[in-house]
Amino acid sequence: MSIDIKICGLKTSKALDAALAAGADMVGMVFFPKSPRHLDLATAAALAKRAGGRVTVVALTVDADDAALAAMIEAVRPDVLQLHGAETPARVAAIRARFGLPVWKAVGIAGPEDLAGLAAYDAVADRLLLDAKPPKGAVLPGGNGVPFDWNLLTGLDLSKPFMLSGGLTPENVEEALRLTHAPAVDVSSGVESAPGVKDPARITAFIRAARNAASSDTATAAVKPALSSNQTGIAS
Asked: Which residue range is the domain that position 96 belongs to?
């Protein structure tokens, strides 16, 4: 299967260049002052320009008002808005209509009860990002380095491709993809040497592991029909 890979929380040209060199499809920039990955608009604009249209630039905000969104969009010119707060489906729809950009909505998952609200967001967002619910007492809605039980996504039925996030690392992304068959993955803390500090070697390792998993899945899918055909021929 093909897979889209997003490296989120980039803050420096070195980290951006590492993501580009390793073959990332998307890069994320965080606009949330409480986060160690928060960017000012000038720095973010320079990074977006450096990306030069080679990747999709995603701007992550948390319960931002229209004025803050407008200022960020004007300065950075992102390709996608990612909403990572408590935005309601109505708010998601309103932002999408007002700013004319694709909107992704992050939804925290901890147990089966959290899947019940996905349909409402699926109806209004361009993509859902399924993230781990933050631990009790956490100040960040994401980027906490905590995975959720990926088996919860078995049989998931959404109208649009989702993105898997939450606690992914170079060491576990292959297992995550094997269990979920997610068409896209998102990583931030899992490729850092310290909060907010991206490690180029881990970025490269993560992308390589995710691509390997996707290639293995494609190969397995291709073999199965061939086996079935051979078995049918033997039976006849």
From this structure: 4-235
Catalytic pick among 4, 8, 122, 186: 8
CATH code of the domain containing 184: 3.20.20.70
Range 69-74 contact pairs with CB under 8 angstroms and sequence separation of 24 or more: 69/95, 69/99, 70/99, 71/41, 72/31, 72/41, 72/44, 73/99, 73/101
pTM of the predicted model, to two decimals? 0.87
Backbone angles phi, psi at 31, to 5 degrees: -120, 80
Please indicate whether residue 131 is annotated as part of the active site.
yes
* 5, two tokens: 């890979």
Q: What is the largest CA-CA distance in the chain?
A: 69
Say how many domains are in the chain: 1
With beta carbons less than 8 A apart as the criterion, state whether 7 and 203 touch.
yes
- Is 8 known to be catalytic? yes
Identified catalytic residue from 4, 122, 131, 186: 131
The model's pLDDT over 178-218, given as tens digits with 9 standing for 90+, comes to: 999 999 999 999 999 999 999 999 999 999 999 999 887 65
